[in-house]
Amino acid sequence: MNFVPGEALVIPIQGVTLGGEFNLAADASGLVLFAHGSGSSRHSPRNQFVARTLREAGLGTLLFDLLTAREEQAEARTRHLRFNIPFLAARLADATRWILAQTNRDVSVGYFGSSTGAAAALVAAAELGETVRAVVSRGGRPDLAEGALQRVRAPTLLIVGGEDGPVVMLNEEAFGRLRCEKAMQIVPGAAHLFEEPGALEKVARLASEWFAAHLQPQKKPRGN
Question: Is residue 15 one of the residues assigned to a domain?
Fold first, then answer.
């Protein structure tokens, strides 16, 4: 299937359709899928900013909605899905399989998760194994991944705002349970949404460096 960079696309999974925005240059060194947090969407200005930075660094991006419009309306009233991590992780894993099948390319995959989306990213990474080569969490709740943390094999970077006290502690706890290559970066002076001057720029730089280090093109074995 041919995709126009930046064009809206529809992702059919689990009997529903999810809106997305896909960019993958021919020479992209990897593809990063974004898992947004509760109450957000593919239009999140913070994730859009990080995605632009990743594309400037030569990476492809897929931002997509984890929920349908009807599900978002119901969720706003009942809040029954925002902490349903297995449900969100299954959506992310299915979207990963779908986009890889559509692109028909041997591309390295990474996840960028925010808030509860970080937990979904870690659970999906544990499920997909070697398909996912790197994970970055921004102000995430990796603790909600629970038992999946020990099964994650993808190198994982946790980024937390220094002023986001409770979330810092939750990230430290989750960091101790990870058994993969890992790092934790605390951005001084930043709160949960990284709205302070320069904070989001630092997040984007850290994420770009992490993905650049771990989403190198896979080398195919030479024939005899």
Answer: yes
